[in-house]
Amino acid sequence: MTRPWIAALALALPLTLAVAPGARAADAGAYPTKPVRIIVPFTPGGAADIMTRALGERLRPHLGQPVVIENKPGAGTVIASDYVARQAPDGYTLLMAASSLGIAPAVFKTVGYDPVKDFTPITLVASVVHVLEVNARLPVTNVKELIDYLKTSGKSVSYSSAGSGTSTHLEAELFKTMAGVQMAHIPYKGSAPALNDLVGGNVQVMFDAYASSAPHIKSGSVRALAVTTAKRSATLPDLPTVAESGLPGYEAMPWLGLLAPAGAPPEVVKRVHAATQQALKDPALREQFRALGLDIIGNTPEEFATFIKQDAQKWAKVAKASGAQAD
Q1: Please, where are the H alpha helices in 229-265?
Q2: What's one Pfam family here (predicted)?
């Protein structure tokens, strides 16, 4: 005769086994259950920092948890990138990566991460509007005239950058190679001093973020010739691209995008991606991005993964051809 407690256990056991997988799925789907950190590879107060903090505020209601922004600047964003690559792939530490993620391995002697293998792409948040600009006294008004001037004037022309191995350096080297022109590179410790010497006429050409150059462009001390992206910028719709105004095929798109460490669960990536898409629809946020010189993109994880691979390969070729190395 079967004892009553044995029968009860037999009935309960299958139910327990059936519920357990569902309980695990519910636990996985509960992400996030604590604050999410976004690591910014720049100092506080810059465009990338301001943008990430504004985005974090909009992510909070969609994720149901606070979003904490931490700054880890240094070594051309390598410090922050390497730090996030080594974190647990649980979705609680994310990186607001910059285009230097893929540039750094080409210009630094050693980098502790692989931009393709060591991260899980979530979304390319925005492109950073960069412009090709010249000192207002240089007698050129478009890219074609600049190329002609560099080829025929017989005068020595210099360009400034935010530092050796930076995106502004490689953008100019790509331009030189494609246009078949020569310009001397004058590296600075950051965009501000490089821009100051452009305004003062100590250098004649510069590739720079529109956000930092805008006051000088508006004052007339610097002349913007074109944006560096393949398509015109929503921020500067009347300014042509380098490609359409004298150098077909030229494209350089500095960017900012969300990454998780490699191996992040698909459901976590899906959740953060969906929350970001919702946040990027906010009209006030979109206006803030525009004021910072950022064009919103918000693509899929798959599209972002393809982009990172291609972008890293592109700048590796430019760095090798030019011999560019980080300071």
Answers
A1: none
A2: TctC
- Closest by CA position to 58, among listed 231, 222, 255, 279: 279
Report the alpha-carbon distance of residue 152 to residue 102 in Å, rounded: 35
Structural domains for the chain: 35-127+253-322 (3.40.190.150), 130-227 (3.40.190.10)
Q: What are 91's two structure tokens?
A: 């979705």
Two tokens at 292? Answer: 């910072």
Strand partners, 37: 68, 93
- pLDDT tens digits, one per residue of 222-272: 999 999 999 999 999 999 999 999 999 999 999 999 999 999 999 999 999
Strands of 184-187's sheet in order across: 184-187, 158-161, 205-209, 130-135, 222-227
Strands (E) in 22-100, as ranges, are 36-40, 67-71, 93-98
C-alpha to C-alpha distance for 208 and 128, rounded to whole angstroms? 10
Q: Please state the pTM of the whole predicted model.
A: 0.86
